[in-house]
Amino acid sequence: MAQPPCPICKTSATIGSVGDQDVFHVVCPVCGRYNITGTLFASDISHYAPPFKVSAGLRSLHEANTVQTLSTSSIANIADLVRPPRDPIDAIDTILLYIVSKSGRGDQFVHMEANAEYPIVCAENPSEFTFYLQKAGDLKYLEQQGSSYRLSLVGWERYASISKRIQRSSKAFVAMWFDPSLETIWREGIKSAIEMAGFTPTRIDLQQHNEKICDRIVAEIRSSAFVVADFTGQRGGVYYEAGYAMGLGIPVIWTVSRLDIPNLHFDTRQYNHITWDSPIDLQENLLMRINATIPKPIHD
Ligand SMILES: [Zn+2]
Q1: CA of residue 96 to ligand 1 center, whole Å
Q2: What is the pTM of this model?
Q3: Per-residue pLDDT of the chain (300 residues; tens, 9 = 90+)
Q4: Using alpha carbons only, what angle is made at residue 277 by residues 271 and 278, rounded to the nearest 5 degrees?
Q5: What is the whole-number distance in angstroms between the Cα of residue 63 and the centre of ligand 1?
Q6: What residues pack around ion ligand 1 (CB closer than 5 A)?
Q7: Distance from residue 35's CA to the centre of ligand 1 (Å)
Q8: 19 in the Ramachandran plot: left (φ > 0), alpha (ψ -120 to 50) or beta?
């Protein structure tokens, strides 16, 4: 039996229904796993956002082990999660980060088919991805075995300089719900722990941006050494920002109020959340986690 096409990228996919809701679960080799509402499924996707951008956003969430539901209201946010590369070097760097994230060890090869992997760099089509892959080969960054790739020593040197650029930053981006009930958690818990660890916290009020990931948020995350994502209140924007940071290889520290654990999105429970009962409790544990896992910023 022929498989139905993914409503976003039109590749053969596995599509099932979710309970008795008007929602479908899609497993697509290009976009990854996602849910889509019946209304959007029946619509013309390109009416809401360019499909290749939606594929890229869904794939970044999939790589971050997060399943989101695509609806007429969330589709634009998801399409904005990933930006097309600024230039070929930008795309090549993303490919190197992807290979490292997929390979346990330096000697392992990672299978990549342009047909399935093009959304990783937010390419418009497989041939654009093939172009970047060939250029990465021209720069001698990759070793190839059939359709599998690993970094060469030159590639590892490039990877080290990309990582250093991230680690040299003294900024920490905070993704959280901007609710008055969490003001003390921000001030006495998150902000103070980040400052005690020697970093400068930044947060951008999502409400000012209609919960959409704007260019400023993207720029802030890109230039941060790490991200603290607090999931209390289950805000969609927090999931997006954490997924975006993970896609860039930027470490994410997950926190949540103990009272909110039962509400956590299923697929994020596997991450080692810091659960907090009070601002002081959060401050102590977050400081410990930053000190243990994030390299100290290098000040010039
Ligand atoms: Zn797809």
Answers
A1: 23
A2: 0.67
A3: 457 899 999 999 999 988 777 899 999 999 999 999 999 999 999 999 999 999 998 998 787 667 778 988 778 777 876 778 889 999 999 999 899 988 878 899 999 999 999 999 999 999 999 999 999 999 999 999 999 999 999 999 999 988 877 667 899 999 999 889 999 999 999 999 999 999 999 988 755 555 455 777 888 998 899 999 999 988 878 888 888 888 777 889 999 998 888 877 655 556 677 889 999 999 998 998 888 778 777 654
A4: 120
A5: 14
A6: 6, 8-9, 28, 30-31
A7: 11
A8: left
